[in-house]
Amino acid sequence: MMNQALALATGQDVKLGGRQGTIKHIDNEVILIKFGDKSFENFAPHEIYQAANDGCFHMIEKPIDIRCIVELTEKQQLECDRRSAYCDAFLAFKELHPTKGLSNGLVNKVYDKIQETHPTKPSVKTVYAWYRLWLNDGRDMALQVVHGNSQDQRMPPEVKELMGKIVRRYYLKPSRPTINSAYEHFKRAFKGKGRAFADFKMPSKSTFSRFIQRLSKYEVDCARYGKKHADRENRIASKAYNVTMPLELAECDAADFNIGLLNDDGTYAGKVVIFAIIDVATRACLGYTVQVAKKPAESAALVIHSLSHSMRIKPDPLRYPMGGIAMTYVFDNGPGFRAEMTRKFMNAIGSDVTYCRSRHPEEKPHVERMYRTWRKKFFSKLSGYLGKRDKEVVPEHTLKQAATLTVTEFIELFDAYIQDEYHHTPNRGINNYTPYQMWQKHAHLDEVMTIGDFDDRLKIRGSLKKLTCTSTHGVSHRGQRFHSEELKMVFNQAVCNTKKSSLPMEVMIDDFDASAITVVLPDGQLIEVPNVRGIERDISFTKLSSHMLNVNEEDLPVSKTVQQIKNEIKQKRANGTLVPSDSLVRENEISQNTQTDMETDFEQHTTITDEERESATGFGLE
Fold first, then answer.
1. Long-range Cβ pairs for the range 160-169 (8 Å, 24+)
2. Residue 272 in 3-state DSSP?
3. pLDDT at position 237, please?
4. The pTM is what?
5. What is the pLDDT of residues 386-430, one digit of tens each?
6. High-pLDDT (> 90) share of the chain, %
7. 280/247 Cα distance (integer angstroms)
8. Which of the chain's ends, N or C, has fewer CB atoms near its CB within 10 Å?
9. Is 485 helix (H, G, I), strand (E, B) or coil?
10. What Rg value do the Cα atoms of the chain yield, rounded?
């Protein structure tokens, strides 16, 4: 009975009391688990069932091997377009005829449309293989087109920048010009660069078209048709939710709070922005991220870190048992939610995503209500909080002037509030149960899937940068250094027999998790490189930098210049002050002068008076 309720099976990864292991044998009388330290333990089925009720036993979803393709060559993009044409047509056909399979007639129909650009016709078997891989990869065709160890030859950044300017100026307009007319403007601008672009090959019109197609649909719709049309064309969330179990629906949003924080040395760190995910059924906060910055901005890194935090088992499952992968996520319409890296992360997770319209808080009411509770029950009690911003109210102090709490103090206070107060406060929306009680009541009855601590999907981080890597020091970012034996091996293979001492690498960074970074290899493989300092997970770069003493470069000591030294020597000699070099005796004077001559010469040039000489004990000249 327990086996069916928890859906346990041989080979299932589990976490029991903070220890991760794998089920090696299971029957009606005993469950054998092998833990990470290679030890084996037997448990009776009722013991596992009781541990699940107490929140000490969790099933871990099997990790999957994923890749992330940053950019494609023109040849790879053409192949993506070719395969996508057949797969898109087959998907549309399956939606109309779910019981029918792929036919040779459908392949011929697509081939007739694209044969001028793609003259090679595939077989039905080949198209079906493409289609299955395409669906398994989250409809990302690049993952099957780019094979291992392929070189990624990118468009020169100067050409890409020019193409972006032309598209914004001559294509993203309310008059809705054609791609052909925008491409003509691009050709004239490219030729106008003259010698600066002499070494670059002009991109073709198909490359120009694909550049436009990769733009955000919402951005294109806003620029060409207006915001109302873009809001209507993009998916919107339902205003009413009917959920019956945990992790059926989760709402996600970010909110800024009118409070400033300090670094440990007393300097101003910035204001607070919190991104949170709430489980609608239990009203539990599944995960959150605290951002502290002088000018905070929504980013994919903030979104992805918050989502991964909500999907993982927390360090203390008894105190904070909430976590798991929801079936549907309701996202805001901000840039961080619609970013390419966020889309890749959600494709790897496999959950459905619904986007709200901008400035429509009623479409995600539960997370908005949770933020109001936080303002009233937590922030209003903090020193330095200036209340929710009101245009008609002019505050007496700025955030910087009112700040009294440090970053570390605030994070500790907020963690304690969520885990000890918010989750244990009765909520009228769930019949006066607390979120903790609702989770404990229903979570063990339903299958809760979480991301394992070492799942490859956690390697996708929100900020993509190109950083320099060396064999000895690895990769450095914001005062932290990341290195591993695996990265060193990759570096040595890349430089091979060349004399290169450094190499630029594509790196994914989570600004809110300084424990590791992800290096993207040319074939799309991801390797996680840890922080050499052994930083714990979910410690942000901002929190680490808040412990460092801020140094003003203007206050640093500066050595004197040669001209300053010359001026000082000249001034000393004018005042009659002894200059150290004036008392030195040259080497030839030592070899040529006798002791008597040297003493006489010193007596003639010395500034010591007879009174000073007589008053000094044991000093005199004959």
1. 160/211, 162/186, 162/189, 162/190, 162/193, 163/203, 163/208, 163/211, 164/211, 165/189, 167/211, 167/212, 167/215, 168/223
2. strand
3. 44
4. 0.51
5. 888 776 565 657 888 999 999 989 999 999 999 999 999 999 888
6. 21
7. 8
8. C
9. helix
10. 34
